[in-house]
Design goal:
heterodimer, A: Rossmann fold, six-stranded mixed β-sheet, 23% strand, B: mainly alpha, 2 domains, 66% helix
Protein backbone atom coordinates (compact mmCIF):
# COMPACT_ATOMS: atom_id res chain seq x y z
CA UNK A 1 0.00 0.00 0.00
CA UNK A 2 2.88 2.36 0.49
CA UNK A 3 1.37 3.45 3.75
CA UNK A 4 4.62 2.65 5.51
CA UNK A 5 6.50 5.16 3.45
CA UNK A 6 3.95 7.85 4.22
CA UNK A 7 4.29 7.10 7.87
CA UNK A 8 8.05 7.21 7.64
CA UNK A 9 7.79 10.79 6.46
CA UNK A 10 6.03 11.64 9.67
CA UNK A 11 8.99 10.56 11.77
CA UNK A 12 9.48 14.12 13.04
CA UNK A 13 6.74 13.60 15.61
CA UNK A 14 7.10 10.05 16.86
CA UNK A 15 4.68 8.20 19.12
CA UNK A 16 1.86 10.25 17.75
CA UNK A 17 -1.55 8.70 17.57
CA UNK A 18 -3.88 9.93 14.89
CA UNK A 19 -7.59 9.43 14.89
CA UNK A 20 -9.16 9.14 11.46
CA UNK A 21 -12.91 9.07 11.09
CA UNK A 22 -14.40 7.47 7.98
CA UNK A 23 -17.96 8.54 7.23
CA UNK A 24 -20.32 8.54 4.27
CA UNK A 25 -23.57 6.95 3.06
CA UNK A 26 -24.03 3.18 3.03
CA UNK A 27 -22.36 1.42 0.10
CA UNK A 28 -19.89 4.30 -0.40
CA UNK A 29 -16.86 2.05 0.19
CA UNK A 30 -15.71 3.03 3.70
CA UNK A 31 -14.93 -0.50 4.86
CA UNK A 32 -13.06 -1.26 1.64
CA UNK A 33 -10.86 1.81 2.21
CA UNK A 34 -10.30 0.76 5.83
CA UNK A 35 -9.30 -2.75 4.76
CA UNK A 36 -7.05 -1.37 2.06
CA UNK A 37 -5.25 0.78 4.63
CA UNK A 38 -4.79 -2.24 6.86
CA UNK A 39 -3.69 -4.37 3.86
CA UNK A 40 -6.51 -6.83 4.47
CA UNK A 41 -8.55 -8.94 2.07
CA UNK A 42 -11.51 -7.00 0.63
CA UNK A 43 -13.35 -9.96 -0.90
CA UNK A 44 -15.72 -10.79 1.92
CA UNK A 45 -16.93 -7.47 3.21
CA UNK A 46 -20.40 -7.27 4.77
CA UNK A 47 -22.56 -4.19 5.41
CA UNK A 48 -21.24 -2.54 8.57
CA UNK A 49 -23.63 -3.11 11.44
CA UNK A 50 -22.24 -0.60 13.92
CA UNK A 51 -18.58 0.14 13.23
CA UNK A 52 -15.14 -1.26 12.45
CA UNK A 53 -11.89 -0.01 13.88
CA UNK A 54 -8.40 -0.79 12.71
CA UNK A 55 -5.10 0.43 14.01
CA UNK A 56 -2.22 0.58 11.61
CA UNK A 57 1.08 0.80 13.45
CA UNK A 58 4.38 1.64 11.80
CA UNK A 59 7.47 3.60 12.74
CA UNK A 60 6.10 4.52 16.12
CA UNK A 61 2.93 5.89 14.60
CA UNK A 62 -0.50 4.68 15.32
CA UNK A 63 -3.32 5.42 12.94
CA UNK A 64 -6.65 4.63 14.54
CA UNK A 65 -9.16 4.44 11.75
CA UNK A 66 -12.84 4.40 12.67
CA UNK A 67 -15.26 3.20 10.04
CA UNK A 68 -18.86 3.82 11.04
CA UNK A 69 -21.84 2.26 9.26
CA UNK A 70 -23.51 4.55 6.74
CA UNK A 71 -27.05 3.34 7.02
CA UNK A 72 -29.57 6.13 7.65
CA UNK A 73 -30.68 4.73 11.00
CA UNK A 74 -27.08 4.58 12.23
CA UNK A 75 -26.18 8.13 11.19
CA UNK A 76 -27.53 9.70 14.41
CA UNK A 77 -24.77 7.79 16.24
CA UNK A 78 -21.98 9.24 14.12
CA UNK A 79 -21.60 12.14 16.53
CA UNK A 80 -20.58 9.77 19.32
CA UNK A 81 -17.30 9.27 17.47
CA UNK A 82 -16.40 12.91 16.69
CA UNK A 83 -14.29 13.61 19.79
CA UNK A 84 -10.55 14.08 19.18
CA UNK A 85 -10.76 13.42 15.48
CA UNK A 86 -7.64 14.51 13.57
CA UNK A 87 -8.92 13.98 10.05
CA UNK A 88 -12.43 13.58 8.74
CA UNK A 89 -12.57 11.31 5.73
CA UNK A 90 -15.81 11.44 3.81
CA UNK A 91 -16.41 8.74 1.22
CA UNK A 92 -18.75 9.27 -1.73
CA UNK A 93 -19.93 6.73 -4.31
CA UNK A 94 -19.31 8.91 -7.39
CA UNK A 95 -21.67 6.78 -9.48
CA UNK A 96 -24.63 7.08 -7.12
CA UNK A 97 -26.02 10.29 -8.63
CA UNK A 98 -29.45 9.67 -7.17
CA UNK A 99 -28.11 10.16 -3.68
CA UNK A 100 -25.76 13.04 -4.40
CA UNK A 101 -28.04 15.48 -2.62
CA UNK A 102 -28.41 13.18 0.38
CA UNK A 103 -24.66 12.73 0.74
CA UNK A 104 -24.19 16.52 0.50
CA UNK A 105 -26.72 17.14 3.25
CA UNK A 106 -25.01 14.63 5.54
CA UNK A 107 -21.61 16.17 4.82
CA UNK A 108 -22.72 19.69 5.71
CA UNK A 109 -24.35 18.43 8.84
CA UNK A 110 -20.91 17.10 9.84
CA UNK A 111 -19.10 20.29 8.89
CA UNK A 112 -21.53 22.27 11.04
CA UNK A 113 -20.75 20.25 14.13
CA UNK A 114 -18.80 21.97 16.86
CA UNK A 115 -16.64 18.94 17.66
CA UNK A 116 -15.46 18.75 14.06
CA UNK A 117 -14.71 22.46 13.81
CA UNK A 118 -11.63 23.21 11.68
CA UNK A 119 -10.88 19.49 11.34
CA UNK A 120 -9.30 18.87 7.91
CA UNK A 121 -11.62 17.17 5.45
CA UNK A 122 -10.60 14.58 2.90
CA UNK A 123 -13.29 13.54 0.42
CA UNK A 124 -12.73 10.33 -1.47
CA UNK A 125 -14.55 10.37 -4.81
CA UNK A 126 -14.77 6.60 -4.87
CA UNK A 127 -15.80 4.14 -7.61
CA UNK A 128 -14.20 6.14 -10.42
CA UNK A 129 -14.01 2.88 -12.39
CA UNK A 130 -17.79 2.76 -12.84
CA UNK A 131 -18.85 3.98 -16.30
CA UNK A 132 -21.30 6.64 -15.12
CA UNK A 133 -19.24 8.03 -12.26
CA UNK A 134 -18.82 11.75 -11.71
CA UNK A 135 -15.21 12.98 -11.99
CA UNK A 136 -13.73 14.31 -8.73
CA UNK A 137 -13.75 17.93 -9.95
CA UNK A 138 -17.45 17.76 -10.83
CA UNK A 139 -18.21 16.09 -7.55
CA UNK A 140 -16.36 18.85 -5.68
CA UNK A 141 -18.52 21.43 -7.45
CA UNK A 142 -21.72 19.49 -6.87
CA UNK A 143 -20.93 19.20 -3.16
CA UNK A 144 -19.93 22.88 -3.01
CA UNK A 145 -16.51 22.08 -1.58
CA UNK A 146 -14.88 25.29 -2.95
CA UNK A 147 -17.06 27.32 -0.61
CA UNK A 148 -15.50 25.69 2.45
CA UNK A 149 -13.32 28.30 4.12
CA UNK A 150 -13.07 27.15 7.72
CA UNK A 151 -10.75 24.17 7.23
CA UNK A 152 -8.27 22.50 4.91
CA UNK A 153 -10.01 20.20 2.47
CA UNK A 154 -9.07 17.97 -0.39
CA UNK A 155 -10.92 15.78 -2.86
CA UNK A 156 -9.22 12.65 -4.08
CA UNK A 157 -10.54 10.39 -6.82
CA UNK A 158 -10.10 6.74 -6.05
CA UNK A 159 -11.05 3.16 -6.85
CA UNK A 160 -10.93 1.60 -3.40
CA UNK A 161 -11.33 -2.00 -4.63
CA UNK A 162 -8.13 -1.58 -6.65
CA UNK A 163 -6.43 0.61 -4.08
CA UNK A 164 -6.01 3.40 -6.64
CA UNK A 165 -5.91 6.86 -5.11
CA UNK A 166 -6.21 5.71 -1.51
CA UNK A 167 -2.53 6.32 -0.83
CA UNK A 168 -2.60 9.80 -2.36
CA UNK A 169 -5.45 10.77 -0.06
CA UNK A 170 -3.57 9.55 2.97
CA UNK A 171 -0.49 11.47 1.90
CA UNK A 172 -2.50 14.67 1.86
CA UNK A 173 -3.96 13.83 5.27
CA UNK A 174 -0.54 13.27 6.82
CA UNK A 175 0.93 16.38 5.23
CA UNK A 176 -1.94 18.45 6.59
CA UNK A 177 -1.52 17.05 10.09
CA UNK A 178 2.17 17.90 10.02
CA UNK A 179 1.45 21.53 9.26
CA UNK A 180 -0.85 21.90 12.24
CA UNK B 1 -3.06 -38.03 6.46
CA UNK B 2 0.70 -37.73 6.32
CA UNK B 3 1.36 -41.19 4.98
CA UNK B 4 4.62 -41.67 3.09
CA UNK B 5 3.14 -44.45 1.06
CA UNK B 6 2.86 -43.27 -2.55
CA UNK B 7 -0.51 -44.94 -3.05
CA UNK B 8 -2.02 -43.21 -0.02
CA UNK B 9 -0.47 -39.90 -1.05
CA UNK B 10 -2.01 -40.27 -4.46
CA UNK B 11 -5.36 -41.19 -2.95
CA UNK B 12 -5.39 -38.03 -0.84
CA UNK B 13 -4.54 -35.82 -3.82
CA UNK B 14 -7.33 -37.52 -5.74
CA UNK B 15 -9.88 -37.05 -2.94
CA UNK B 16 -8.91 -33.38 -2.51
CA UNK B 17 -9.32 -32.79 -6.21
CA UNK B 18 -12.70 -34.54 -6.36
CA UNK B 19 -14.10 -32.61 -3.40
CA UNK B 20 -12.77 -29.22 -4.54
CA UNK B 21 -14.43 -29.75 -7.89
CA UNK B 22 -17.68 -30.87 -6.24
CA UNK B 23 -17.72 -34.24 -8.02
CA UNK B 24 -18.13 -36.27 -4.84
CA UNK B 25 -21.81 -37.18 -5.45
CA UNK B 26 -24.17 -39.95 -6.51
CA UNK B 27 -22.72 -43.02 -8.21
CA UNK B 28 -19.37 -41.27 -8.37
CA UNK B 29 -19.34 -41.06 -4.57
CA UNK B 30 -19.88 -44.82 -4.08
CA UNK B 31 -17.14 -45.54 -6.60
CA UNK B 32 -14.71 -43.16 -4.89
CA UNK B 33 -15.44 -44.54 -1.45
CA UNK B 34 -14.91 -48.10 -2.64
CA UNK B 35 -11.62 -47.10 -4.25
CA UNK B 36 -10.44 -45.28 -1.15
CA UNK B 37 -11.24 -48.21 1.14
CA UNK B 38 -9.62 -50.73 -1.21
CA UNK B 39 -6.42 -48.68 -1.42
CA UNK B 40 -6.09 -48.60 2.35
CA UNK B 41 -6.93 -52.33 2.66
CA UNK B 42 -4.19 -53.06 0.17
CA UNK B 43 -1.53 -50.81 1.65
CA UNK B 44 -2.22 -51.75 5.26
CA UNK B 45 -2.80 -55.43 4.40
CA UNK B 46 -6.18 -55.53 6.10
CA UNK B 47 -8.41 -58.50 5.46
CA UNK B 48 -11.92 -57.11 4.89
CA UNK B 49 -13.52 -60.46 5.74
CA UNK B 50 -12.02 -60.37 9.21
CA UNK B 51 -12.30 -56.62 9.73
CA UNK B 52 -15.63 -55.97 8.01
CA UNK B 53 -16.44 -53.22 10.51
CA UNK B 54 -13.33 -51.33 9.36
CA UNK B 55 -14.66 -51.18 5.81
CA UNK B 56 -17.92 -49.67 6.97
CA UNK B 57 -16.42 -47.20 9.47
CA UNK B 58 -13.53 -46.09 7.31
CA UNK B 59 -15.80 -45.49 4.35
CA UNK B 60 -18.00 -43.31 6.59
CA UNK B 61 -14.95 -41.32 7.72
CA UNK B 62 -13.82 -40.65 4.16
CA UNK B 63 -17.34 -39.61 3.25
CA UNK B 64 -17.48 -37.14 6.15
CA UNK B 65 -14.00 -35.69 5.82
CA UNK B 66 -14.10 -35.06 2.09
CA UNK B 67 -17.80 -34.30 2.21
CA UNK B 68 -16.89 -31.41 4.51
CA UNK B 69 -14.21 -30.24 2.08
CA UNK B 70 -16.75 -30.41 -0.72
CA UNK B 71 -19.25 -28.43 1.33
CA UNK B 72 -16.68 -25.65 1.69
CA UNK B 73 -16.34 -25.59 -2.11
CA UNK B 74 -20.12 -25.49 -2.62
CA UNK B 75 -20.54 -22.68 -0.08
CA UNK B 76 -17.63 -20.77 -1.59
CA UNK B 77 -19.16 -20.96 -5.05
CA UNK B 78 -22.39 -19.40 -3.78
CA UNK B 79 -20.51 -16.73 -1.87
CA UNK B 80 -18.51 -15.67 -4.88
CA UNK B 81 -21.64 -15.46 -7.03
CA UNK B 82 -22.61 -11.82 -6.72
CA UNK B 83 -26.22 -10.74 -6.55
CA UNK B 84 -27.22 -9.75 -10.08
CA UNK B 85 -30.42 -7.78 -10.55
CA UNK B 86 -30.53 -8.81 -14.23
CA UNK B 87 -30.73 -12.45 -13.19
CA UNK B 88 -34.39 -13.46 -12.88
CA UNK B 89 -33.62 -16.36 -10.52
CA UNK B 90 -31.83 -13.99 -8.16
CA UNK B 91 -34.68 -11.51 -8.36
CA UNK B 92 -37.28 -14.21 -7.69
CA UNK B 93 -35.39 -15.33 -4.60
CA UNK B 94 -35.45 -11.77 -3.28
CA UNK B 95 -39.23 -11.59 -3.85
CA UNK B 96 -39.63 -14.98 -2.15
CA UNK B 97 -37.72 -13.71 0.86
CA UNK B 98 -40.15 -10.83 1.18
CA UNK B 99 -43.21 -13.03 0.67
CA UNK B 100 -42.09 -15.43 3.38
CA UNK B 101 -41.24 -12.78 5.94
CA UNK B 102 -44.08 -10.37 5.19
CA UNK B 103 -46.95 -12.56 3.93
CA UNK B 104 -49.59 -9.95 4.71
CA UNK B 105 -47.86 -7.01 3.13
CA UNK B 106 -47.37 -6.94 -0.62
CA UNK B 107 -44.26 -5.29 -1.96
CA UNK B 108 -45.23 -2.05 -3.69
CA UNK B 109 -42.35 -2.10 -6.17
CA UNK B 110 -38.96 -3.67 -6.69
CA UNK B 111 -37.19 -0.59 -5.39
CA UNK B 112 -38.93 0.62 -2.28
CA UNK B 113 -38.28 1.77 1.27
CA UNK B 114 -40.27 -1.28 2.42
CA UNK B 115 -37.07 -3.35 2.22
CA UNK B 116 -35.95 -1.50 5.33
CA UNK B 117 -38.81 -3.17 7.22
CA UNK B 118 -36.91 -6.45 6.98
CA UNK B 119 -33.62 -4.77 7.79
CA UNK B 120 -31.95 -3.91 4.50
CA UNK B 121 -30.08 -0.61 4.43
CA UNK B 122 -31.80 1.28 1.67
CA UNK B 123 -34.51 0.89 -0.95
CA UNK B 124 -32.70 -1.76 -3.02
CA UNK B 125 -31.21 -4.78 -1.26
CA UNK B 126 -28.88 -5.61 -4.14
CA UNK B 127 -25.97 -3.59 -2.75
CA UNK B 128 -26.23 -5.18 0.69
CA UNK B 129 -25.11 -8.70 -0.18
CA UNK B 130 -21.59 -7.54 -1.10
CA UNK B 131 -18.83 -10.02 -0.27
CA UNK B 132 -21.33 -12.70 0.80
CA UNK B 133 -23.03 -12.71 -2.60
CA UNK B 134 -25.84 -15.20 -3.18
CA UNK B 135 -24.83 -17.11 -0.06
CA UNK B 136 -26.24 -14.25 2.00
CA UNK B 137 -29.57 -14.35 0.18
CA UNK B 138 -29.81 -18.16 0.13
CA UNK B 139 -29.15 -18.27 3.87
CA UNK B 140 -31.84 -15.70 4.63
CA UNK B 141 -34.30 -17.39 2.29
CA UNK B 142 -33.72 -20.83 3.82
CA UNK B 143 -34.22 -19.46 7.33
CA UNK B 144 -37.39 -17.63 6.27
CA UNK B 145 -38.80 -20.65 4.40
CA UNK B 146 -37.76 -23.69 6.40
CA UNK B 147 -38.09 -22.10 9.81
CA UNK B 148 -40.85 -19.70 8.94
CA UNK B 149 -42.31 -19.40 12.44
CA UNK B 150 -38.90 -18.92 14.03
CA UNK B 151 -37.84 -16.40 11.39
CA UNK B 152 -41.01 -14.34 11.75
CA UNK B 153 -40.55 -14.39 15.50
CA UNK B 154 -36.93 -13.26 15.17
CA UNK B 155 -37.99 -10.56 12.69
CA UNK B 156 -40.50 -9.23 15.21
CA UNK B 157 -37.71 -9.03 17.82
CA UNK B 158 -35.61 -7.07 15.35
CA UNK B 159 -38.36 -4.43 15.40
CA UNK B 160 -38.25 -4.14 19.18
CA UNK B 161 -38.50 -0.43 20.13
CA UNK B 162 -35.50 -0.59 22.49
CA UNK B 163 -33.43 -3.57 21.42
CA UNK B 164 -34.22 -3.63 17.72
CA UNK B 165 -31.63 -4.37 15.05
CA UNK B 166 -31.48 -4.71 11.27
CA UNK B 167 -32.71 -8.19 10.46
CA UNK B 168 -31.23 -8.62 6.95
CA UNK B 169 -27.98 -6.78 7.65
CA UNK B 170 -27.37 -8.77 10.81
CA UNK B 171 -28.32 -11.87 8.81
CA UNK B 172 -25.68 -11.12 6.19
CA UNK B 173 -23.10 -10.60 8.92
CA UNK B 174 -24.12 -13.98 10.38
CA UNK B 175 -23.59 -15.53 6.94
CA UNK B 176 -20.05 -14.23 7.18
CA UNK B 177 -19.69 -15.79 10.64
CA UNK B 178 -21.07 -19.18 9.53
CA UNK B 179 -18.83 -19.13 6.45
CA UNK B 180 -15.74 -18.40 8.55
CA UNK B 181 -16.59 -21.16 11.06
CA UNK B 182 -17.00 -23.61 8.20
CA UNK B 183 -13.80 -22.60 6.47
CA UNK B 184 -11.52 -22.67 9.49
CA UNK B 185 -12.88 -26.06 10.54
CA UNK B 186 -14.69 -24.99 13.71
CA UNK B 187 -17.97 -26.27 12.28
CA UNK B 188 -16.60 -29.80 11.81
CA UNK B 189 -18.03 -31.12 15.07
CA UNK B 190 -21.47 -29.86 14.09
CA UNK B 191 -21.40 -31.10 10.52
CA UNK B 192 -19.88 -34.48 11.42
CA UNK B 193 -22.38 -35.11 14.18
CA UNK B 194 -25.46 -33.99 12.32
CA UNK B 195 -24.95 -35.42 8.86
CA UNK B 196 -25.90 -39.04 8.41
CA UNK B 197 -24.55 -39.17 4.89
CA UNK B 198 -22.75 -36.78 2.57
CA UNK B 199 -23.08 -33.25 4.00
CA UNK B 200 -25.11 -30.97 1.74
CA UNK B 201 -25.73 -27.24 1.50
CA UNK B 202 -28.92 -27.73 3.53
CA UNK B 203 -26.76 -28.54 6.51
CA UNK B 204 -24.92 -25.26 6.18
CA UNK B 205 -28.23 -23.40 5.93
CA UNK B 206 -29.42 -25.20 9.08
CA UNK B 207 -26.24 -24.23 10.88
CA UNK B 208 -26.87 -20.63 9.81
CA UNK B 209 -30.50 -20.76 10.95
CA UNK B 210 -29.34 -21.99 14.31
CA UNK B 211 -26.85 -19.12 14.58
CA UNK B 212 -29.52 -16.58 13.70
CA UNK B 213 -31.97 -17.97 16.23
CA UNK B 214 -29.33 -18.04 18.96
CA UNK B 215 -27.93 -14.62 18.09
CA UNK B 216 -31.35 -13.06 18.41
CA UNK B 217 -31.77 -14.51 21.90
CA UNK B 218 -28.27 -13.40 22.91
CA UNK B 219 -28.76 -9.88 21.57
CA UNK B 220 -31.97 -9.39 23.55
CA UNK B 221 -30.33 -10.81 26.68
CA UNK B 222 -27.52 -8.26 26.32
CA UNK B 223 -30.03 -5.38 26.31
CA UNK B 224 -27.86 -3.30 23.98
CA UNK B 225 -28.16 0.49 24.05
CA UNK B 226 -28.19 0.65 20.26
CA UNK B 227 -26.91 -0.90 17.06
CA UNK B 228 -23.39 0.39 17.70
CA UNK B 229 -22.93 -2.45 20.17
CA UNK B 230 -23.19 -4.99 17.38
CA UNK B 231 -19.43 -5.53 16.81
CA UNK B 232 -18.89 -6.16 20.50
CA UNK B 233 -21.87 -8.42 21.03
CA UNK B 234 -21.32 -10.41 17.87
CA UNK B 235 -17.69 -11.01 18.84
CA UNK B 236 -18.74 -12.37 22.23
CA UNK B 237 -21.43 -14.45 20.57
CA UNK B 238 -18.93 -15.95 18.14
CA UNK B 239 -16.62 -16.84 21.01
CA UNK B 240 -19.48 -18.67 22.77
CA UNK B 241 -20.36 -20.53 19.60
CA UNK B 242 -16.76 -21.61 19.13
CA UNK B 243 -16.71 -22.89 22.69
CA UNK B 244 -19.81 -24.99 22.21
CA UNK B 245 -18.49 -26.29 18.90
CA UNK B 246 -15.35 -27.40 20.71
CA UNK B 247 -17.45 -29.60 22.92
CA UNK B 248 -18.63 -32.51 20.79
CA UNK B 249 -21.49 -33.43 23.13
CA UNK B 250 -23.28 -30.10 23.04
CA UNK B 251 -23.45 -30.03 19.28
CA UNK B 252 -26.38 -32.34 19.00
CA UNK B 253 -28.50 -30.07 21.13
CA UNK B 254 -27.89 -27.20 18.75
CA UNK B 255 -29.91 -28.91 16.11
CA UNK B 256 -32.79 -29.86 18.37
CA UNK B 257 -33.29 -26.36 19.69
CA UNK B 258 -33.97 -25.00 16.21
CA UNK B 259 -36.13 -27.88 15.13
CA UNK B 260 -38.44 -27.87 18.11
CA UNK B 261 -39.21 -24.15 18.32
Amino acid sequence: MGLLSILRKLRSSPEKELRLLLLGLDNAGKTTILKMLAAEDINHITPTAGFNIKSVIADGFKLNVWDIGGQRKIRPYWKNYFENTDILIYVVDSADKKRLEETGIELYELLGDEKLQAIPLLVYANKQDLPNSLPASDLAQALGLPTIKDRAWQIQSCVAIQGTGVKEGMEWACKTIKKK
Amino acid sequence: MNSRNPLIKQLIIHLNDISHNKRFTGANEREILRGAVNSVLLVKKINPKVHFQFVKSFSKCVEQIWGYQQLIAIVEELRTTGYDSDNLTHEQKLYDLWANLMPNEPLESRVTKQWQDIGFQGDDPKTDFRGMGMLGLENLLFFATEYKTVATHVLSHSNHPLYGYFFAIVGINLTSMAWKLLKNGDAKSYIYNVSKSLPTIRLFHQFYSYLFYEFDKYWLDCRPKNMMEFPNISEKFERNIKLSLNDPTSVFRINISVDTV
